[in-house]
Specification:
Strand order of the largest sheet: 5-8-9-11-10
Shape: elongated
Number of strands: 11
Distance between the termini: 27 Å
Strand content: 15-25%
Oligomer: single chain
Number of domains: 2
Radius of gyration: 20 Å
Largest sheet: 5 strands, mixed
Structural class: alpha+beta
Order of helices and strands: EEHHEHEHHHHEEEEEHHEEH
Length: 297
C-alpha cells in the first residue's frame, strides 16, 4: 500500500497510507487541503492560493468548501486519532479525484506530479476494494446505505481488510455499527458520547437516543471493550456468505498480531482483560476507539 516518502515524515499525512486520508463527504471520496499540502510539502495556504488563482479549473464537482456541520463531523476523528489539526481560521477545502489530478497542473512541481500518481492509484484501489468485496458491500448497502458503504470501503483500504482476518473483522464491526446491527454503550451501559457513531439513533426530533441491534461492547474515552462472542457473531452475520475465515479463538490471536489489542492480561497469559462494565466484571477484548470509530456526517 503506497505511503508518502519519508522526507514528509513531520506531518500526520506523510506517516499514514494515502487511502487513510480519503474521506467520504457529500457522497464523494475526497481529500482535505491540509493533507494534500502535507503530501506535496507546501503550506496549505500556498496550495489554496494556487487554486484561487486558477479557479476556472476547479468546478464544484472537483472541489468544494466544507460546511461547519461537515467539519464538526470530521473533528470527532481528529480528536481521537489526529492531534494537532486546530488553529485554522477558515473552513477546509475538499478535493475529489478530478480536483486532485488538476492540482499538479497548478502547483507545477515534480513533487506534486509524483504524489498525484500515488494519490490517484489510492482512489483506484478504493474502487477495486468495493468491487472485490461485493458481497459485503451489498449487505452494507441494505443496512446503511451509500454512506456506510463508502466508510467501509475507506477502512478496508486503509487497513488491508480484505487480506487479513483481524482488519476484516474491524471493517465488519464498523459495518454493523453503521447499519444498525450492533451498538456500543458507555461504561455504565448507557448512551455513549458520539452516540450516532456507536450504533444509536434518535427516537425523534429533540428526543432521546435508542440502541440498535446487539450490544457488542462498551466505550470509555479512547478505549473500546468488545464482548468477544457477541462481536464475533455480529461480524459473521454481516459477512454472510463471504464468511470470516478464522475461529473466534484464532481471531483474538490475529488481533494481537496486528497490534489491534490495546492491552492484554499478561499476568494470566490471556488476550482478554478483566473490566467492570455495565455494573459487573467482564472478560473483554481491549481495542482503541481510533481503530474502529467511523466518521459521522
Amino acid at each position: 500500500m503506497a505511503k508518502a516518502p519519508k522526507s514528509a515524515g513531520k506531518t500526520v499525512a506523510a506517516t499514514r497510507p494515502v487511502e487513510g486520508l480519503i474521506h467520504v463527504i457529500r457522497g464523494q471520496k475526497v481529500m482535505l487541503d491540509s493533507d494534500l499540502a502535507a503530501l506535496y510539502e507546501v503550506p496549505t495556504k500556498s496550495l489554496n492560493l494556487a487554486v484561487r488563482r486558477n479557479q476556472g479549473r476547479f468546478p464544484d464537482d472537483f472541489m468544494f468548501q466544507l460546511t461547519p456541520d461537515e467539519l464538526d463531523g470530521l473533528r470527532l476523528q481528529f480528536e481521537t486519532s489526529k492531534p494537532g489539526r486546530g488553529g485554522r481560521r477558515y473552513l477546509p477545502y475538499a478535493f475529489a479525484e478530478p480536483g486532485v489530478a488538476m492540482l499538479s497542473s497548478v502547483l507545477r512541481s515534480e513533487r506534486a506530479v509524483q504524489m498525484n500518481i500515488i494519490i490517484v492509484r489510492a482512489f483506484i484501489r478504493l474502487r477495486e476494494l468495493v468491487i472485490s468485496n461485493k458481497d459485503i458491500a451489498d449487505r452494507v448497502e441494505k443496512l446503511g446505505g451509500e454512506g456506510a458503504l463508502g466508510d467501509l470501503a475507506q477502512r478496508q483500504a486503509q487497513y488491508q481488510a480484505g487480506s487479513d482476518p483481524a482488519w476484516r473483522f474491524v471493517a465488519l464491526v464498523q459495518a454493523a455499527l453503521a447499519g444498525g446491527q450492533a451498538h456500543v454503550a458507555d461504561r455504565q451501559g448507557k448512551v455513549p458520547t458520539a452516540a450516532a457513531a456507536w450504533g444509536w439513533q434518535r427516537r425523534g426530533p429533540g428526543r432521546g437516543w435508542e440502541a440498535r441491534g446487539t450490544r457488542i461492547g462498551w466505550v470509555a474515552g479512547g478505549d473500546l471493550y468488545l464482548e468477544p462472542t457477541a462481536s464475533y457473531e455480529v461480524a459473521r452475520t454481516v459477512a454472510g456468505t463471504a464468511r470470516l475465515s478464522v475461529s473466534e479463538q484464532t481471531l483474538r490471536q490475529r488481533l494481537r498480531e496486528q497490534g489491534l489489542l490495546a492491552s492484554i492480561d499478561a499476568g494470566r497469559q490471556m488476550l482478554q482483560v478483566r473490566r467492570t462494565l455495565g455494573g459487573r466484571p467482564r472478560q473483554v477484548l481491549h481495542l482503541r476507539t481510533s481503530d474502529v470509530l467511523l466518521p459521522t456526517e
